[in-house]
Amino acid sequence: MHIVVCIKQVPDSAQIRVHPVSNTIMRQGVPAIVNPYDLFALEEALRLKDRYGGRVTVLCMGPSQADAALRKALSFGADEAILLSDRAFAGSDTLATSYALAAAIQRIREDMPVDLVFAGKQTIDGDTAQVGPGIAKRLNLQLLTYVAKIDALDLERKEILIHRRAEGGVQVLRTSLPCLITVLEGINEMRFATMDDMFRAARYPLKVWDKAAAGIADLSKVGLKGSPTVVAKVFAPQPKARKAERIEAHGDAPKDLAATLLTKLFTHHPQLERHISERAS
Amino acid sequence: MTEIPAKKTATGRRKVELDPRLAAYKGVWVFVEHERGVTHPVSWELLGEARKLADQLGVEVGALVLGAPGPAIRRACDDTFCYGADVCYLIEDPVLANYRNEPYTKGLTHLVDKYQPEIVLLGATTLGRDLGGSIATTLATGLTADCTELTIDPENRSLAATRPTFGGSLLCTIQTLNYRPQMATVRPRVMLSPERGSPRTGRIIEETLGMIEESIITKVLEYIPDERQDQAQLAYADIIVSGGRGLKRPENFQLIWDLAEVLGAEVGATRPLIQAGWVTADRQVGQTGKTVRPKLYIAAGISGAIQHRVGMESSDVIIAINEDPNAPIFDFATYGIVGNAMQILPAMTEVFRQHVATAKRAG
Asked: Do B217 and A175 touch (CB under 8 A)?
């Protein structure tokens, strides 16, 4: 069994701050991490490898410093790591990104057939969730997104059974391999990296593929040229100015504050009082 | 996702070099999410937006309805005319009874290729996000996800789609200038639902799918609806009590549940609490969680950072409880209490409980 896991190196968006004067992102000191959702995908692939044997190849499209993300993936037990990196890819939107990644996976497939492609639900910098579906389409793979659980895998019949999170419920789906799966956060708990794997990761001779190595000849499909979407402007959100009315009470005892709040709330918003009285247990 | 350019000059207007064949694409379409006889309310929210965009462009609003044959889907078509559609494109087929990527992608791309809309909108639900990426790739066009604002650029009649980036720290406006259709997804509750009106004169155009079940590789074996208690119904809740890191310890989150019970409210939380495992991910309110528009939002121990704020700032009334008088949440809440949430919450629970009991006795 051969699984390809797509990962991305992203800035830790929870730590991103906007410069109050210039309205630009302050990148200094914001660590680059493996997209957290991708780690769930990697762990799921490694669990399948534990169970069924085979190989896990990790693929990452990014600048040269993204090699750190790949080494992190190797430290958890991935077998092979490929960095897809070329100046021509700069400025890629999701369509151009899926084109490049699909080309690379096609190359990988030529050397060793691929049974499953895994990706995280979305990235924490782009948050689009579009690249996984794009790769599936381009490689003609069945697409399974928001997978909450992999129930069964039959490598002989080339079938997989999964639970997929839908609105208001869960779909139980069965499909054929090869397919592309994006997993939900919380599907598993990441393993600890072993000392052996950490050493191996540090020494590993990463494959770095440029556009030629990935078999990409049509440059109109990558980078800025291959991106239908363009960023017209970037700006900081304008906070609405509406300062809160402070609830105060003599002595600031919690009971008094709560009582004052209730009175204010129901006086100014009688419809809320009706609503609560009707619905409350 | 396009990189944020380093130099300011790298952004800005690009030239529109739209192929005349693509420039002839007309109409603003909405994918109506209809499954098992029920239409997802995000469909009406999008139709409302589509109506505004179409009126600015002077074009028609098209609603796309796909699903199993029957009275429910016909009702859905009629409903679209009450929410702003001029034309409803309908594909009825048993194969469409439950959502699957392959037949829905085929049906929608067929409709787009035949009727050529300039804009297509989908709800950013699990279905819409699964479908949107597939369609955009098939059509080789631009798709902008999770938009919070959609306007028409008066200079070139293109869609200008604004969305948060980097987890909500910044906003960016994105355009698909030289490809058609311009696609966008919008999360539920981000746009206001229009009032259901009396139906416009609408016409239904029926198309066939042209697929047989045997040829579709993915099979839906079962659909298991959520137990109401298990999954949060946050997006459409009227009252939400929500907790953040100011609660300090997981046991304190029980105070949120207690107040919610007295108020008949749903429970929400900020992203750090979900990541720490205090509550399930379906309760996350914020940029990468749910957008909510309740009548009342009570935020306890929540600082009001932008990533959370964008998910709840459209609430009618916001009550904020925080120890820090300088917490950003006090800049946009309706009422604020500076205090210890661990004391204020139980006091509120008690006070509301007494009020409801009194009202019940009186009534």
From this structure: yes
